[in-house]
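The records we work with from here on pair a chain with its fold. The integers have meaning only within a learned vocabulary of local backbone shapes. A complete example follows; check for yourself that the lines match position by position.

:::
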Amino acid sequence: MKKGKENKAHIGIYGRRNYGKSSIINKLAGQEIAIVSDKAGTTSDPVKKSIEITGIGPVILIDTAGIDDIGELGKKRIDKTSETIKIIDLAILVISYNTIGEFENELIKDFAKYNTPYFIIHNKSDICMLESKFKKNIYEKYQKKIIEFNTSKNFDTEIIIEVIRKTLPESTYKTPSLIGDLVKYGDIVLLITPIDIEAPAGRMILPQVQLIRDILDNDCVAIVIKERELDAFLRKTKIKPKLAITDSQIFLKADASVPKDIPLTGFSIVLARLKGEFDYYLKGTPHISELQDGDRVLLLESCTHHVSCDDIGRVKIPRWISNYTGKKLKYDVVSGLDKLNRKITDYSIVIQCGGCMITRKQLSNRLKSAIDANIPVTNYGMAIAYIQGVYTRAIAPFVKTDELSIDYL
């Protein structure tokens, strides 16, 4: 399954084979998107479908293989099912026959491990009604109420939708402002946006588009300019923006051109504060200076794209870090949200992209293993700013001056 492609709330549906997960997905979507069969194990790979929920907006439903699958192929299916828990914002656990056993308990442990909210549906009530004693026991053990459901009758799916509304964290569909705390009505924000080989033809990259929208939403003025026109623009117009935001690759140019009394930061750093592990980035970035010969660096790209000859993650950042440290380092790049080929402890530092194409939860879980293992983490923009000597200025808009401790510098 291609994961992390859509920045929408992800809802996973889990349970044993032939418990009606696919039928529930179809009911919620109002169409046949998942194959339904009486034969156990019909769903193999996770299946994704986008639907609209009033009051929330678009969400991604993920239908998964049965957690009780068997055989070598079944184990691979279960592994894929388990992997989806890292990318979801809400889980629906489907049970039946008044049974919660080892399979379900393992899922619940994983939900807790990744801090994933969930609720329980008791399906197939036409075959086996939900017993009041079982319902009471589940509530006492898990503090979860159970929704009784039956896809073969005209059960109202709005019951499930309403629980989704109540259980899905608001942070997954109500995006906070990117810079709303830094600007006020009428302020001018200058966006310095180079158009290079990595820019999509006829379009702007997503972080730039997101910033333009956020600036307008805050009733401010966005001025978008290429770096080559920056000096002439500032000289001729005498405009003094409230904030300047630049592409990380031209930090040095922007730092030299934008007056020091104008706050300056990067698109990637703005995103890092919104959805990254910003406090860990602040602590982890200076560890670039501590890298030694033979150390391995992990670069995480959370989307997949055509790789150019001057790719930022695969070419430029490794080159800049090697030149900055003067060390012989080894680099691994992992795209999307795929498994790592090495143990996380093999790495001396992890550098995450801005994460514009994934959710806050997906990015957090992507970095969890490194943070748990006390491995320094940073992001593309903050690493570039550090290497180019503009780190203090680039993070200053988000960190009070008296908080800029030696650990951050």
About this structure: The domain at 277-403 is CATH 3.40.50.11410 (Rossmann fold). The radius of gyration is 24 Å. The chain has three domains: 9-172, 188-269, 277-403.
